[in-house]
Prior knowledge:
Blueprint: H1 2-20, H2 24-57, H3 62-74
Helix pairs in contact: 1-2
Amino acid sequence: MGVFMTFGSIILWMIISVTTGVPLVPLLLVAGMLAVCVPSLGYPMTYTVWFAIDITFRPPTEADFAQAQAWLDSRPAR
Length: 78
């Protein structure tokens, strides 16, 4: 999903800039900024979506909760 957001925004930017006649350097600078910023900003949303899909197809079991509780109990108290 993140790949589609990243490449989609870059391709859309390049199509718009080529049709409007933007020079090459600003075109590449904005495309580079999109390649860095879109994945950084879109990560929380895509992570949440894939986690929700995982929970839907593989619901947590009692063993998962017991393992999580054991991990919490093994941590030193603050």
